[in-house]
Design a protein that fits this description.
single chain; about 500 residues; alpha/beta; 6-stranded mixed sheet; 22 strands; globular
Length: about 500
């Protein structure tokens, strides 16, 4: 498997990263000083590289660099000029499209065909927010006192962002683009398991004209590197994408420093199929909702709620289709589903399947998987109620739990009977039913007769254990700015209600 290590080094050199995994601080690639972190190929199950945890000192240097660069970015560049730089970044990302996609596939274990789509979306993110850079403005408020009162939206300063291993480059672009469009500096810590494409993205951005030090990438661990960044005085807000368990710890750490947070966490989304739906369409949608990306998506349709009249027919269709899904090497053009991204997650997913079987669930899956890699085959569970562990716990793998319902009221009740509130979908030919269900189900994103369509221009986020705040669309601009209210007394006589002059 040495050829995969050689490929990693070749891709890193092509992207200007050298041959070592390093943080990018103040425009320079820097070694960490902490414990060793291993990057493992989830397909070949070999060590690809290892590096030292960034550590507190380098995290502090990154925050200082971002604070210094942010002053020039917000004060020395016009809003239009910031947009021009971001357009250049978008073009540069497209120029490195294939190299970035292959690096992402190798390290994260995602099919390269999916990685190409995600890299293209990152370029689109920078284009979208480039267009917003000179269009973010306040308003004039007709206050009754006769003052001229107007508002400004000002950048926060430095924001600290933590992104996950399931979509490293996608979530990096998702967070960085709106932050810098609004004039902020950024310190970003990708998952220690998948840091390389985030470093590469920022290196490409700097080569395209982004001021060095404006965005800094920390390769390291949460309890050391992440905690140090959260506590740094320059950081004004914390953005976290990941599991609810880690999100709670991040939110507490931010609150202890009196810093607000945006949390984009997990889900246990209900994919609801009524008896009048186009079942072939719904079956294909259900497969894409849970099996694509090996189910490692926060919006995955992991609870398949099916009307009792078509439950057996639809689940049979989905189970029959599982055998046709191509599992394999993420670098293979034919692969549709790759391995679970890391050994710890693989153990969690397989443990949840065993637990469902022990709880009396019926487990339907394919018989064969590739000989190597952390593969979990597409799996459909049935015979369990909505209070079963598999129906309440985020599995984050290619595993759907099918549950029958009798009518619209019960479907909505089951859909909302969870501590998550991120996404959901309904499949029906009844327009009225579609709108009633989409209104009644607790979710930040909801699809009708489709699944997983998202775009940078539309707000994304959830509630309860799915987090709070919004991380895309124009709503994200509000998360990265604060309003300032300015009052001008324009009258001939000052409107002072109380005071004295000695």
């Amino acid at each position: 498997m040495s050829d995969r290590k050689d490929l990693l080094l070749s891709l890193m050199r092509d992207l200007g990263l050298g041959t070592e995994v390093q943080s990018l601080v103040g425009g320079q690639l820097r070694d960490g000083a902490g414990d060793a972190v291993v990057l493992e190929d989830p397909y070949a199950q070999i060590e690809l590289a290892r590096y030292a945890d960034c550590g507190a000192a380098l995290a502090a240097a990154a925050c200082d660099a971002a604070a210094e660069a942010q002053k020039a970015w917000a004060g020395g560049y016009s809003a239009a000029a910031r947009g021009d730089v971001m357009q250049d970044i978008a073009r540069a990302v497209q120029d490195h499209h294939e190299t970035l996609a292959r690096l992402e596939a190798l390290v994260a274990g995602k099919p390269v065909r999916d990685c190409r789509v995600e890299v293209a979306k990152v370029a689109e993110m920078f284009r979208y927010y480039a267009g917003w850079a000179d269009k973010l403005h306040g308003e004039v408020i007709p206050v009754p006192s006769g003052h001229l009162n107007y508002t400004l939206r000002e950048p926060l300063g430095v924001v600290f962002q933590i992104t996950p291993w399931n979509a490293p480059i996608f979530t990096a672009g998702w967070q960085i683009a709106p932050a810098i469009a609004t004039g902020n500096g950024v310190v970003i810590k990708p998952s220690e398991l998948t840091p390389l494409t985030t470093v590469a993205l920022v290196k490409i951005a700097e080569d395209a004209g982004l001021p060095k030090g404006l965005v800094n990438v920390l390769c390291g661990l949460g309890p050391t590197t992440g905690q140090a960044a959260i506590e740094h005085d320059a950081v004004r807000k914390v953005i976290f994408v990941g599991s609810p368990e880690t999100g709670r710890r991040v939110a507490v750490a931010a609150a202890q420093s009196l810093k607000p947070a945006v949390l984009e966490l997990g889900g246990k989304s209900a994919n609801i199929v009524f008896g009048d739906a186009n079942l072939k369409h719904a079956a294909l949608g259900a497969q894409a909702a849970i099996f694509s990306g090996a189910g490692q998506s926060c919006v995955a349709g992991s609870r398949l709620l099916v009307h009792q009249s078509v439950h057996a027919e639809l689940t049979d269709m989905i189970a029959a289709g599982m055998d046709g899904i191509r599992l394999g090497d993420p670098l293979d053009e034919a692969t549709e589903v790759g391995p679970i991204s890391n050994g710890r997650q693989f153990a969690h997913v397989t443990g949840m399947i065993r637990g469902a079987r022990d709880e009396g669930g019926i487990v339907r899956t394919r018989d064969t998987t590739p000989d190597t890699g952390y593969f979990v085959p597409p799996t459909l569970l049935s015979g369990l109620g909505n209070h079963a562990a598999a129906a309440q716990t985020e599995i984050f793998g290619p595993v759907a739990t099918a549950i029958a319902f009798a009518d619209e009221e019960e479907a909505i009740a089951i859909a909302n009977d969870t501590m998550f509130g991120l996404a959901g979908a309904v499949w029906t030919s009844d327009v009225g039913c579609a709108h009633r269900v989409s209104s009644a189900v607790r979710a930040g994103t909801f699809w009708i007769n489709s699944y997983k369509a998202i775009h940078v221009s539309s707000p994304f986020g959830g509630s309860l254990n799915s987090g709070f705040g919004r991380s895309s669309g124009s709503d994200a601009l509000m998360e990265y700015t604060s309003p300032k209210s300015v009052w001008l007394d324009s009258g001939k006589t000052p409107k002072i209600a109380f005071g004295y002059v000695s």
